[in-house]
Specification:
Layout lengths: L8 E2 L1 E4 L17 H14 L3 E4 L1 E2 L5 E2 L2 H5 L2 H7 L3 E4 L9 H11 L3 E5 L3 E2 L15 H8 L5 E2 L3 H12 L4 E6 L2 H12 L7 E7 L9 H15 L3 E7 L4 H10 L3 E4 L6 E3 L2 E2 L3 H14 L3 E2 L2 H8 L4
Parallel strand pairs: 1-16, 2-3, 2-13, 3-6, 6-7, 7-10, 10-11, 11-12, 12-13
Antiparallel strand pairs: 4-5, 8-9, 14-15
Helix pairs in contact: 1-10, 4-6, 7-8, 9-10
Bound molecules: (5S)-5-amino-3-OXO-hexanoic acid (KMH) and zinc ion.
């Protein structure tokens, strides 16, 4: 069938720490290089084929310096054949120059690329989390009221020019249908190569909502714009994570989980690790009669350099 681009295999991406959640929100959020390494390897053990990686300073602040990534990247690469995906989103408070540095330095198989500018509402989390060890955590959330995650056409071109020559392919982060049209625009200009790995993001305030109709709307729009030239994946922010993953898997899509995207294992239950979420989504996938993709199958499906 048209949707058999995955040959029935579902790629699980795991985003282990990110730059959105802060240490006081969950004792299980990996912060130190040691924690990022162990959470990453456990996630691969559980079935993740791709690791989406960010770095943090010892107090948990997002760290987008190549040095920060040097603390865990070599060890992860030595210990697993999982596909390494380095963020170019960093923290939405950073400049694109700062954000692209680790991917430019390490020339990974995959790097994230955010396909449009948007409001990035983190402050509603202040209703859920009251106590913070560090002042920067509250500022990080409150400041998002006036935060624009900037990804202009020039910024996107800059990341493409900086990374494409290294053989790096992209996880195109699309938070709304406009971002799919931006990707189509760059495809028309021949600046991106098919198959496009589209990571559609649901339920982040400022982007499209988490309703099943929103998921269908993004899928239909991507099908219309890209036909067979894209590989679809979804991430649901927070408590929407598993429901959206289940819907997408049933539709032939791939999925992303991990503590970057949600701190939860279930209603009001903090996930003890990203691997817990990988195990849960894997069970959903296998109960749908589908199989998960190995890292090499993911490379095959996404056309990566390996
Ligand atoms: C919603 C996610 N934080 C999207 C993301 O992972 C962005 C990036 O790292 O480039
Ligand atoms: Zn990320």
């Amino acid at each position: 069938s048209k949707d058999n681009k995955n040959a029935g295999k579902v790629i699980i991406t795991c985003a282990v720490t990110g730059a959105i959640h802060t240490p006081s929100m969950s004792p299980h959020l990996p912060v130190t290089p040691k924690e990022i390494i162990s959470d990453s390897l456990a996630a691969v053990e559980a079935g993740a084929a791709i690791l989406h990686l960010h770095a943090r300073h010892p107090d948990g602040r997002p760290d987008q310096s190549p040095e920060g990534f040097a603390e865990f990247l070599p060890r992860i690469k030595q210990s697993t054949d999982a596909v390494v995906n380095i963020t170019t989103g960093g923290s939405p408070y950073m400049s694109v120059e700062e954000r692209v540095a680790p991917a430019a330095t390490y020339q990974p198989e995959l790097a994230s690329l955010n396909m449009g500018s948007m409001n990035f509402g983190l402050y509603p989390m202040l209703n859920r989390f009251k106590e913070f060890k560090h002042d920067w955590e509250r500022e990080h959330l409150e400041g998002s009221k006036d935060l624009v995650f900037r990804n202009s056409f020039k910024d996107i071109e800059y990341v493409l020019e900086t990374c494409y020559g290294n053989g790096t392919r992209f996880e195109f982060e699309c938070y709304d249908t406009s971002h799919l049209y931006n990707l189509a625009h760059f495809a028309d200009r021949g600046l991106v190569k098919a198959p496009f790995f589209v990571q559609s993001v649901f339920g982040l305030l400022g982007g499209i909502g988490p309703h099943p109709e929103d998921v269908m709307h993004m899928k239909r729009t991507a099908d219309r714009l890209f036909g067979d030239d894209f590989r679809w994946s979804v991430l649901g922010a927070g408590s929407n994570q598993f429901r959206i993953a289940a819907q997408a898997a049933a539709l032939g899509g791939n999925v992303r989980v991990g503590l970057e995207d949600s701190l939860w294992a279930g209603r009001g239950e903090l996930a003890k690790s990203s691997a817990v979420q990988v195990k849960k989504v894997r069970a959903i996938i296998e109960n749908l009669g589908l199989q998960i993709a190995t890292p090499d199958e993911a490379r095959e499906i996404l056309g990566l350099k390996g």
